[in-house]
Amino acid sequence: MKKNFAFILAAGLMVGVAGNVFAAIIAGPLTYPGNGHEYYLLTPDTWTASEQEAESLGGTLTLIRNQAEQDWIYSTFSDYGQTNRYLWIGLRRQSAGGPLGWVTDEKSGYANWSAGNPDNAGGAENCVYLYRPNDPQAGKWNDFADNAKESAPICGVVEVPGKGDEPVLTAREKALVGDWYNNGDADHCCHIVATGNQLFAIDENRGASRLIDTPEGFLFSPHWKQHLVVQDDKILWSWGNWWSRQPVKFKTLANEPADTHAPEGEAGLKPK
């Protein structure tokens, strides 16, 4: 029953996580013949809300890998319905001042920056959009703050992989499915579940995020913006905590011997 509950919970959370902070759909799905992927145009919102809606649709904010994709995305969505728009894409900094990268961690040598960009003005421009059609820099890329306002709507463009190239869960991903314990604490049970061909983590507070297995060998959580490293029966999160397959017993009395099953360097400590 516990695992069934986790699977049902994951499906519900992928629709409702973050609740009313999602953007909504203006148009789509529209298929780009060049790659067979489906695309959606979202209502004006922040980059973060737009990315959350993209994940709920089974994709991410769009990647742009070449000039042909750039031209199609811009011509299809920038003035859709005769409304000029800036367009959020899936390029962002994971931390202030950090390098820009695609949300899927895919590597691409293509770029279409406007003059002088990216400049990270004010140290807070962590997201990227395409300039609207009636701008002198029309179609070029600009880094911009997540919650800042522009003179025209900023709308996200979502990319959802086509059925033909949907990945299948690897044996490594399937092996992660099950119950986990935050910092080894039996009272803080978390879950990793699979729905179709995607992997999701559910924390002790029922927050959820998709997990993406990267070519570099680590997992990436786009919603929580965290990297995960799997080491035997533990998952190490980049924000400092860890998940274990089994609860870990910690000794708390100074005159008791340290628990030999506690993680190295943590015997005799009680988890926070």
Strand and helix layout:
Blueprint lengths: L1 H15 L8 E7 L6 E7 L2 H10 L3 E2 L5 H11 L8 E8 L6 E3 L24 E4 L10 E4 L9 E7 L10 H5 L2 E5 L6 E7 L2 E5 L5 E6 L5 E3 L4 E6 L2 E4 L4 E3 L28
Structural class, judged by helices and strands?
alpha+beta
Find the count of extended strands (DSSP E, 2+ residues).
Answer: 16
Give the low-pLDDT segments: 1-20, 251-256, 258-272
Number of helices, counting only DSSP H or I runs of 4 residues or more: 4
Q: Give the CATH topology of the largest domain.
A: Mannose-Binding Protein A, Chain A
**Name given to the CATH homologous superfamily of the largest domain:** Mannose-Binding Protein A, subunit A
**Which whole number gives the mean pLDDT?**
83
Notes on the structure:
The structure is a single chain. Helix content is 15%, strand content 30%. It has 272 residues and is an alpha+beta fold. It folds into 2 domains: 145 residues, Roll (Mannose-Binding Protein A, Chain A), CATH 3.10.100.10; 106 residues, Lipocalin (Beta Barrel), CATH 2.40.128. Strands 1, 2, 3, 4, 5, 6, 7 and 8 form an 8-stranded mixed beta sheet that branches. An 8-stranded antiparallel beta barrel has the order 9-10-11-12-13-14-15-16. The chain starts with a helix and ends in a 28-residue tail after the last strand. The N terminus and C terminus are likely disordered.
